[in-house]
């Protein structure tokens, strides 16, 4: 406890705690900021990849549109249609299906207005069905004579279609429709191209139906989340895929008119991100410990640099308090507060020296005054003694004279007494004589 009372110990503790708290605050802020930046970067990357996949869908539609434009521009195709010769269409287009499928375009249709299937190149035996209620793009292409590309419901699920009307005399007589389904081939191509797992959902009778995915039967987004995204805004959250951390991004796929028609889910493995964040956090902890150790060393250096002069000045002040004014004051040449303190102590030392000199002078003066006083007292005593001796001698002499006078007076008194007695006797004799005379007279 006594160690904590020293300035150096408290300074070391204060600096260490300050640096520790600062490191903790900055470290926590850095970790939070790093995770926020990582999340932001991941979100931006997922959004970019989502936009890339949707751009890939548009690209598939434009590719399908280019193929449909090529097929619609072939005169034999229009001739076979006008003749109603499906076999001729099969002979013309059937041979191209192998190469088209290899390029991811497995669907080729010829539609009679408004949207009646005339010939399915990929399934020749199925034709004659009216799809005007679900293939609105075909209806619109046959009506307007313009090319249309986009996502739309096919006979089985969803597909990416590009359609070009067959024109004769400025009028659309039929439409060549080329498309790619959202099947395994599409998601595998997208994963290979963009390096991310994905799944496509179709909302069938109000319930999400997974058309294809690159992660099998693993669960990413829940059906409720898929429905919410289909009805509203995109969703991004953390998730788990096959026991590994992942980021989930779910957004809408829109048709040619801009209306939501499907949901696209992207799942990115974030193991590398988590490892990088953990590594950065570990390095941050090590850096914090190193900074804390450096702070302790600096605090020790500073504390020793402050405590040593203070201890030396304290020892000097103790010696000064005991009266030792010959002690040297250390640190007077310093330009900091300790130097100011040392200079103040030196002023105190000089004041003590001056005070001691004044006190010694006062003591010397007092001693001289005492000596002069004692000399004066001795002189007065000697004078008094001499005066007393003279008075005593005079008194003794006067006493002797008085004794002589007394002797003389005593002798005179004795003579007078004798004369008085004689007078008394004479008086008595006279009285007796008087009495005799009186008697005689009588």
List the helices and strands and how they pair.
Layout: H1 7-72, H2 75-83, H3 86-93, H4 97-102, E1 107-112, E2 116-120, H5 136-144, E3 148-153, E4 158-168, E5 171-181, H6 184-194, E6 197-204, E7 207-213, H7 223-231, E8 235-241, E9 244-254, E10 260-269, H8 271-321, H9 337-441
Antiparallel strand pairs: 1-2, 1-5, 3-4, 4-5, 6-7, 6-10, 8-9, 9-10
Helix pairs in contact: 1-8, 2-3, 8-9
Q: What is the CATH superfamily of the domain at 7-270?
A: PAS domain
Helix-strand pattern: HHHHEEHEEEHEEHEEEHH
What is the terminal separation in angstroms?
140 Å
Please count the beta strands (DSSP E, at least 2 residues each). Answer: 10
Kindly provide the name of the CATH class of the domain at 7-270: Alpha Beta
Spans of at least 5 consecutive residues whose pLDDT stays below 50 are none
Give the rounded overall mean pLDDT: 81
CATH architecture of the domain at 7-270: 2-Layer Sandwich
Looking at CATH, which topology of the domain at 7-270 would you report?
A: Beta-Lactamase
The structure class reads: alpha+beta
The fraction of residues assigned to DSSP E strands is 15-25%
Shape type:
rod-shaped
**Which strand order do you get reading across the main beta sheet?**
2-1-5-4-3
* Rg on CA atoms, Å: 68 Å
Question: Percent of residues in helical segments?
Answer: 55-70%
Please work out how many helical segments DSSP would assign.
9
For the sheet with most strands, the description reads: 5 strands, antiparallel
């Amino acid at each position: 406890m006594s160690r904590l009372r020293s300035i150096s110990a408290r300074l070391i503790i204060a600096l260490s705690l300050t640096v520790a708290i600062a490191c903790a605050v900055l470290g926590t802020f850095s970790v939070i900021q790093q995770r926020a930046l990582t999340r932001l970067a991941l979100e931006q990357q997922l959004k970019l990849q989502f936009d890339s996949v949707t751009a890939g869908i548009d690209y598939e539609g434009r590719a399908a549109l280019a193929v449909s434009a090529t097929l619609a521009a072939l005169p034999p195709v229009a001739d076979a249609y006008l003749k109603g010769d499906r076999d001729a269409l099969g002979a013309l287009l059937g041979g191209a299906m192998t190469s088209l499928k290899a390029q991811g375009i497995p669907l080729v249709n010829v539609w009679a207005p408004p949207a009646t299937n005339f010939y399915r190149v990929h399934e020749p035996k199925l034709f004659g069905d009216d799809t005007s209620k679900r293939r609105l793009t075909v209806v619109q292409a046959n009506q307007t004579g313009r090319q249309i590309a986009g996502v739309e419901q096919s006979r089985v699920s969803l597909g990416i279609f590009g359609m070009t009307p067959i024109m004769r005399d400025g009028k659309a007589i039929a439409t060549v429709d080329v498309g790619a389904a959202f099947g395994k081939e599409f998601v595998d191509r997208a994963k290979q191209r963009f390096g991310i797992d994905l799944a496509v959902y179709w909302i069938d009778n109000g319930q999400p139906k997974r058309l294809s995915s690159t992660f099998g039967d693993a669960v990413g987004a829940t059906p409720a989340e898929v429905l919410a995204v289909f009805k509203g805004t995109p969703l991004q959250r953390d998730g788990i895929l096959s026991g590994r951390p992942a980021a989930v991004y779910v957004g809408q796929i829109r048709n040619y008119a801009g209306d939501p028609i499907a949901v696209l889910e992207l799942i990115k493995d974030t193991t590398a991100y988590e490892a990088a964040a953990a590594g950065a956090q570990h390095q941050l902890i090590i850096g914090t410990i190193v900074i804390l150790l450096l702070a302790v060393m600096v605090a020790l250096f500073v504390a020793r640099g402050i405590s040593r002069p203070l201890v030396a000045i304290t020892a000097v002040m103790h010696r000064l308090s005991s009266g030792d004014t010959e002690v040297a004051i250390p640190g007077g040449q310093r330009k900091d507060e300790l130097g100011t303190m040392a200079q103040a102590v030196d002023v105190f030392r000089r004041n003590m020296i001056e005070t001691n000199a004044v006190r010694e002078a006062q003591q010397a003066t007092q001693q001289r005054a005492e000596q002069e006083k004692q000399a004066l007292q001795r002189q007065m005593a000697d004078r008094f003694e001499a005066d007393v001796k003279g008075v005593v001698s005079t008194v003794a002499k006067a006493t002797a004279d008085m004794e002589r006078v007394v002797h003389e007076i005593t002798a005179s008194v004795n003579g007078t007494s004798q004369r008085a007695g004689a007078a008394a006797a004479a008086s008595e004799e006279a009285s007796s004589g008087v009495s005799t005379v009186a008697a005689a007279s009588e």
